[in-house]
Amino acid sequence: MSSLHELAHAKINLYLHVTGRRQADGYHLLDSLAVFAGAADRLDLKMGSGRGGHVALDITGRFCAGLGSEDCADNLIVRAGAMLREQIGTDAARALPDVEITLHKELPVASGIGGGSADAAAALRLLLRVWNLDLPRATLMALATRLGADVPVCLEQCAARMEGIGEELSPAPGLPPCGMMLVNCGQSVSTPQVFKTRAPVFTPRATLPPAWVTLADMVRDLAAQTNDLQEAACAIRPEIMTVLDALRAAPGCRLARMSGSGATCFALFDSPEAARAAQAAVQQAGAHWWVWAGDLCRSTTEARTSIPA
Ligand code: C5P
Fold first, then answer.
1. What structural domains and CATH numbers belong to the chain?
2. pLDDT for 309 beyond 60
3. Max Cα–Cα distance, the chain, nearest Å
4. Ligand 1 in contact with 191 (CB < 6 A)?
């Protein structure tokens, strides 16, 4: 059988409002618009020789060292496999072929662009295919939520509004053509620490139009929103402010903001070409920074891969 693969695209929060707190477990309630960039990790899968549905994981790629100390058994990809086996029951799991997954880690780790969540989601998509499992969408989404609050949106891998703790998805407004730049200063950020550090104030849910026709319209509306985690992340990692300054100073930048709980920041440009044209100027501000420029996955089908309805 030929090797199967999936891309795990970077998830960008165009804005992120903390709207409240869930009583039961202290998780924060969010309102966020998530989009996906062309930048991605890649997962390759080969069938193993045994049975039992075991998932062996090998990690390589530019940022594999970021996961170096992590025991592979703790990796979300391996846990995704365990959850699927548990879901279908011990007897059915015994018949599943073992698989070997190679993760090419090209996105910075613990960086606010959903890397680990996107990897887990890509693993779920791969395993559903090779194990020929047909789980109801609601079951799959509940399983994804247990893996992490960002995993459901990464499973669908198309622009969406995220509410609840991130698991309540609804369609994003139509997006205009634009380009995107991503910059990470090389410092990981702990999501729980950022949530703990933020001032305990809440921001209302945003009012969004059904579609944005031009980038100027989208930027005007997004500029009125915030990433409520940005200030706390900047207090923990001040270099994020340097990144934001460099992005705002880049020729053609229309909006610069941090994604998720950081430290990765994004900037919007008129086109992928405009974003790429500004890349060298930003890289000059930080030679050690990871800088990516290119496309935003705009349509709902561009990045989507087959999830059973
Ligand atoms: O769900 P995930 O594992 O990505 O979340 C990591 C941590 O971030 C949680 O343990 C929690 O402390 C915090 N978090 C939160 N509210 C969310 C998402 C994450 O408080 N909606």
1. 4-170 (3.30.230.10), 173-297 (3.30.70.890)
2. no
3. 59
4. yes
